[in-house]
Amino acid sequence: MLSLILCAAGSGNRAGLPENKILHALNGLPVLCHSLSVFAPYAGEILVACRREDEEKILPLLSQYENAHTVIGGETRAESVLHALKMATGETVLVHDAARPFVTREIIENCIISIEKFGSGVCSLPTTDTAVLAEDGKIGSHVPRDKLFTVQTPQGFRRGELLRAYERAEADGTLSAFTDDSGIYEKYIAPPHLFLGDKCNKKLTYVQDFVISERVGFGVDTHAFAHQEEIDRGIARLNLNYITLCGVVIPSNRALEAHSDGDVPVHALMDALLSAIGERDIGFHFPDTDPQYEGISSMFLLEKVMVMLRNRGFGVQNVSISILCELPRLSPHIEAMRANLRRALGCENVAIAAGTNEKLGYIGEGRGITAYAMVLLGHI
Questions:
Q1: For the segment 179-219, what is each residue's pLDDT rounded down to a tens digit?
Q2: Burial of 69 by CB count in 10 Å (0-12 exposed, 13-18 middle, 19+ buried)?
Q3: What residues contact 150, with CB distance under 8 A and at least 6 apart?
Q4: What is the b/e burial string over 361-375, where b = at least 16 CB atoms within 10 angstroms of the residue's CB?
Q5: Which CATH number goes with the domain that contains 218?
């Protein structure tokens, strides 16, 4: 059986939080819940080492896991792990920082494989930056980069060996000097085996670590084709001979009803971008009751939305747009449309798909155009 020890006895001091950071919400759930859910399929028992004052809040989070229990931790991480090791019953044990909620199943499985092959497995990453040893604020010496690794969790061992190492460190009075399990194991048992981790498996330490680094947005827009009599009466404001999609002028025998230029996919895109940063839609920001937006270029409005994104610290990573219409035929114009959006968004990953609605509904009957947009934003 495999025992999992989740180290959760810290506080939110460095993150500037009023509570233990593992209780703080991340994507709608406490940080601890993310770690629990990904490890649960692998662990025969789960021991959460926590502070006594946090136990009452942590226990409800464990209720869906019959094999999960709390262990009151100590003053240091090492003391907390030792308390949990004494209660664990599995032949092997994984120790993981509960404040690393982005750990993947691949990492967990590689850790288990490493234990089976080598008796230990320590998640780590090779250092890509030049590393130095400093003395009094000056470079003392350079460290060979090819031999330098940063260590993450999980770290896995045979439970008996790791417990013996911890008990020897406790007897020597050096327990509090160790900041992770690999150091204790290396000193008292053997050099542990490294396996490759992942940059996404970061530890949440400071307040900026809790800011969601990626956001997704969705938008949809529809415009109806105008009838000739509406154009003659001035109700439809666009030229009869073309429509504008993604800033590209496309020949058409019917105009779109719109207050602006009726750029359906760009309207859907703007709504997707605004929703990703928690803003209201384009009807709120650029109302069709405002004369200044009559006949305005939607690409110009997109620039304004991009300013809002950048002011929030976000950039566009990926865009996917789907346009449904019977006529006009869009395939000859797709690349020009993509090029326009790439320039406007500062993003190369722009996909545009165009299709019909198989003669069904208002789209199939040629009475309108609908566009859907999905966006992925990232911090800049």
A1: 999 999 999 999 999 999 998 898 988 777 776 667 899 99
A2: middle
A3: 124, 125, 127
A4: eebeeeebbbbbbbb
A5: 3.30.1330.50
